């Protein structure tokens, strides 16, 4: 606690900077949490491997931009495209065969895929960190330093989330996806082929992962264990916000990224997680099922 | 037997169940175009299972199921809807967080239904004006009677020729139950063929042309609704007279 | 029954003499692998106490880590014998288990959501171990302080690894015994009812929360013991190998592939997965880094998709089909 008091007293700017960075990070993390929740809401399956799909898309962006010299925006689109393809592929190859299996098998299927993808990435590209050489400025806002890349990523993430919102509420298939997440069997009674809806959902989830990959490529370097770095945060957000709850995930993304960012500056990043988890436990006791959970 | 009118829906020797449990044994049933048929019986008789077999939610283990001449047994639910059968499920199964309007939109998922969306919607609002008023309201916040109307309206959006009603009066206050059966009568008068599974024997026999009594998974009796209603034991056991 | 008993007796006898069987220089390695199999089977068995009743935990690494680090830290810093350290470790694991399981149980968090929560727990423990690097050594891990002499019962350290072999064998048998006891108890019937339909179970008076917490606590305590055993055997602990997603998933895989509902399922599964990973390690060695793991992951995914009942379960199915069943009533 003394660390925290110290900082507030002597270096409040550092804290505020951490808070701002946390906010910006939260934007991108929200994309991941929303994607995971979207898929869970419709399919009732948690894709443990989700953040590793982001990792694969990041490698693509890296190769396209850094190795083949494509312009950044095109490489980013490539990442989104790969994400979408991966989403559909995972659904068709891994999820569809185990749709009726007991939950433990379903979890192991995506878990095994996680092993497979991480090791394959290690085999193909070694554990070296790869990053896109970008010189983007660092802005100074009121004495705080903010990376321009991070700011851009945040803005784009918010735009994508707004797009997702309109997709889910204004388009036909988006409404159908929401309907299925509320009552899976009833949609079939309306003449909707469930598999079609699952595929669209997986594609959208994958696309979100692809967008996140593009946005992270300009901030972080990629390596096979990228999933181990961001996976736990994503899972924690989903748990905190209530699995299947999109609004909860959105809110939880920012809460968690603030805790981790500020905790990281005061103690250590790892401690940030511990605090976040402790918060989760406390919230569980006060408010069951996550912050605003509707599903159980 | 009302054998004159051609059968729209025909079940022959259907046996079906869940896992090791068999809920229906060798059930045969027919519904002619334009008819209103009731299926009554005690709890656990297999009435809901029967509707699930017809609408494709579960596949029959043996027997034949045909609709307007096409064999439909074992086909998945979404295909059966495309053939013209709509199922108003037990407990309604509305999408609670979606608005009334969105629930109705979802009912028109089929391409053919989407083409005549405007027309279908107008029809539903004529039948159930209260739904037009509450268009923007979340389905979960409607009253029991309104929810049932929405469930029926949603089924109508798929432009069916046959509508299956699974325990429509369940959970409704007695005054609503009378209104409900009036509404089902109106739906029938609009030209839809209907098959109603109900616990409220008295009301449904008033509405139907023919009826089947299902007990422990088998057809125990069948005949004209008014005749069935006269049978002593039905009166005592189910109608409560 | 006696045939099975006889077979078990023979198997046990073989296992007992294994460390003395001449194996042309391979013996140390074989003993090493066997001890791994005993320890991880024991841990898998502990996991399966929850898993078989639908409480799927993907975070058992948390209990392993808590167990291993508790006893190691107490020994390294306070000289507390691991025998007592184990008791403290078990208590710590139980506390953690209850803190997480209680809200989950009371508020109906089951299935995938529960698995996700346990995943988070596992990761948090791993991160906590890394964060407190001043005493835990962070990602570099911690070595169990050597006591210097050849063998010490007090310190639970032995130069002759064959003693560990017997210790692990006994603990493994102990795990089987606990499983058997539970399988035959009232608790098992209650848990199955809970697994099928919690509300129905509650309505007939089964104290759902109490049973779930009990099973979870037992599973956690035993897993912690496994962690201590592993730490004492390898004399080195590290957050990656003991906590986190990787180890948690491996435990679950081994049990599910071997068969979650049978006594020997976890052991069979563990033996097979360890054999597979050792084989791949030998074949690929340091060439093609990552290929061994890739194939391992691929095999696991394929097995889960195509052998949903696990190897044991599928073998049983095959056997049952060969022997014609009695006509069903």
Terminal-residue CA separation of chain B? 27 Å
- The secondary structure category of chain B is alpha/beta
Approximate helicity band of chain C: over 70%
Number of helical regions of chain B: 11
Radius of gyration from the alpha-carbon trace of chain B, in angstroms: 17 Å
Largest interface: A-C, 56 and 51 residues
Distance between the termini of chain C: 27 Å
Low-confidence stretches of chain B: none
Strand content of chain C: under 5%
Q: Kindly state the mean pLDDT of chain C as a whole number?
A: 86
Strand order of the largest sheet of chain C: 1-4
Topology:
The complex is a heterotrimer of chains A (296), B (241) and C (329).
Chain A: H1 2-10, H2 12-43, H3 50-67, H4 72-95, H5 103-125, E1 138-141, E2 144-147, H6 148-170, H7 172-182, H8 184-188, H9 194-217, H10 226-241, H11 246-266, H12 269-286
Antiparallel strand pairs in A: 1-2
Helix pairs in contact in A: 1-2, 2-6, 2-7, 2-9, 2-10, 2-11, 3-4, 3-5, 3-9, 3-10, 4-9, 6-7, 6-9, 7-9, 10-11, 10-12, 11-12
Chain B: E1 7-18, E2 21-32, E3 36-40, H1 47-55, E4 62-67, E5 70-71, H2 77-83, E6 85-88, H3 100-107, H4 111-115, H5 117-127, H6 129-133, H7 144-156, E7 162-166, H8 174-189, E8 193-198, H9 201-207, E9 210-215, E10 218-224, H10 225-230, H11 232-239
Parallel strand pairs in B: 3-8, 3-9, 6-7, 7-8
Antiparallel strand pairs in B: 1-2, 1-4, 4-5, 9-10
Chain C: H1 2-17, H2 27-51, H3 61-78, H4 82-106, H5 111-131, H6 133-136, E1 142-143, E2 151-152, E3 157-158, H7 161-184, H8 186-196, H9 198-203, H10 208-234, E4 236-237, H11 239-242, H12 244-258, H13 265-284, H14 291-306, H15 310-322
Antiparallel strand pairs in C: 1-4, 2-3
């Amino acid at each position: 606690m003394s660390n925290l008091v110290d900082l507030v007293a002597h270096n409040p700017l550092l804290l505020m900077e951490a808070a701002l960075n946390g906010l910006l990070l939260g934007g991108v993390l929200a994309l991941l949490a929303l994607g995971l929740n979207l898929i869970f809401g419709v399919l009732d399956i948690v894709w443990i491997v989700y953040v590793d799909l982001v990792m694969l898309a990041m490698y693509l962006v890296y190769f396209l931009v850094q190795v083949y010299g494509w312009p950044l925006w095109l490489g980013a689109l490539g990442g989104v495209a790969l994400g979408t393809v991966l989403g559909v592929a995972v659904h068709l190859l891994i999820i569809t065969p185990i749709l009726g299996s007991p939950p433990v098998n379903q979890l192991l299927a995506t878990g095994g895929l996680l092993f497979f993808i991480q090791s394959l990435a290690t085999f193909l590209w070694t554990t070296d960190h790869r990053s896109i050489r970008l010189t983007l400025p660092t802005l100074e806002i009121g004495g705080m330093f903010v990376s321009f890349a991070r700011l851009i990523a945040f803005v784009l993430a918010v735009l994508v989330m707004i797009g997702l919102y309109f997709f889910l509420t204004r388009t036909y298939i988006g409404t159908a996806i929401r309907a299925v997440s509320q009552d899976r069997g009833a949609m079939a009674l309306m003449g909707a082929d469930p598999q079609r809806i699952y595929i669209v959902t997986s594609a959208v989830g994958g696309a979100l992962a692809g967008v996140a990959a593009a946005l992270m490529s300009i901030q972080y370097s990629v390596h096979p264990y990228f999933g181990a770095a961001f996976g736990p945060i994503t899972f924690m957000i989903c748990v905190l916000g209530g699995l299947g709850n999109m609004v909860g995930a959105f809110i939880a993304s920012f809460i968690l990224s603030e805790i981790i960012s500020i905790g990281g500056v005061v103690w250590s990043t790892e401690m940030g997680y511990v605090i976040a988890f402790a918060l989760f436990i406390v919230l569980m006791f006060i408010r069951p099922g996550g912050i605003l959970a509707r599903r159980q | 037997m009302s054998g004159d009118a051609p059968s729209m829906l025909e079940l022959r020797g259907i046996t079906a169940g869940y896992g090791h449990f068999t809920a229906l044994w060798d059930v045969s049933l027919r519904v002619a175009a334009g008819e209103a048929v009731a299926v009554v019986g005690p709890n656990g008789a297999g009435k809901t299972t029967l509707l699930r077999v017809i609408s494709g939610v579960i596949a029959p283990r043996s027997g034949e199921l045909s609709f307007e001449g096409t064999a439909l047994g074992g086909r998945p639910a979404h295909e059966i809807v495309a053939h013209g059968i709509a199922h108003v499920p037990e407990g309604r199964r509305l999408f609670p967080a979606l608005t009334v309007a969105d629930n109705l939109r979802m009912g028109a998922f089929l391409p053919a239904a989407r083409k005549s969306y405007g027309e279908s919607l107008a029809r539903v609002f004529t039948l159930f004006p209260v739904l037009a008023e509450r268009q923007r309201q979340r389905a979960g916040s409607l009253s029991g009677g309104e929810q049932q109307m929405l469930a029926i309206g949603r089924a109508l959006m798929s432009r069916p020729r046959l509508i299956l009603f699974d325990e429509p009066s369940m959970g409704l206050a007695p005054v609503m139950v009378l209104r409900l059966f009036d509404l089902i009568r109106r739906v029938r008068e609009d030209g839809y063929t209907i098959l109603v599974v109900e616990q409220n024997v008295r009301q449904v026999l008033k509405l139907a042309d023919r009826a089947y009594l299902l007990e422990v998974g088998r057809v125990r009796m069948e005949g004209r609704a008014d005749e069935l209603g006269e049978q002593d034991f039905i009166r005592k056991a189910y109608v409560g007279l | 029954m006696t045939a099975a008993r006889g077979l078990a007796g023979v198997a046990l006898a073989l296992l007992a003499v294994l460390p003395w069987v001449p194996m042309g220089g391979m013996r140390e390695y074989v003993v090493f692998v066997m001890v791994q199999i005993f320890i991880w089977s024991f841990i898998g068995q502990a996991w399966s106490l929850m898993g078989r009743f639908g409480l799927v935990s993907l975070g058992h690494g948390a209990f392993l880590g808590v167990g291993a680090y508790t006893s190691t830290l107490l020994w390294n810093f306070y000289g507390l014998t691991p025998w007592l350290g184990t008791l403290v470790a078990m208590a710590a694991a139980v506390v953690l288990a209850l803190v997480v399981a209680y809200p989950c149980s009371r508020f109906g968090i089951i299935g995938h959501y529960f698995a996700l929560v346990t995943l988070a727990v596992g990761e948090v423990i791993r991160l906590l171990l890394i964060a407190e690097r001043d005493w835990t050594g962070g990602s570099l891990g911690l070595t169990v302080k050597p006591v210097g002499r050849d063998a010490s019962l007090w310190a639970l350290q032995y130069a002759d690894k064959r003693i560990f072999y017997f210790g692990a064998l006994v603990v493994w048998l102990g795990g089987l015994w606990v499983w058997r006891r539970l399988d035959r108890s009232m608790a098992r019937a209650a848990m199955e009812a809970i697994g099928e339909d919690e509300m129905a179970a509650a309505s007939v008076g089964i104290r759902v929360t109490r049973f779930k917490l009990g099973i979870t606590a037992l599973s956690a305590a035993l897993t912690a013991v496994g962690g201590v055993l592993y730490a004492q055997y390898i004399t080195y602990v590290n957050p990656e190998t003991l906590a986190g997603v990787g180890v948690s998933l491996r435990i679950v895989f081994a049990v599910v592939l071997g068969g979650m509902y049978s006594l020997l399922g976890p052991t069979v599964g563990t033996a097979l997965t360890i054999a597979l990973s050792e084989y791949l390690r030998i074949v690929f060695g340091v060439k093609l880094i990552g290929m061994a793991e890739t194939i391992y992951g691929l095999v696991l995914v394929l097995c889960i998709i195509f052998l949903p009942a696990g190897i044991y379960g599928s073998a049983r199915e095959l056997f049952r089909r060969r022997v014609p069943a009695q006509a069903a009533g």
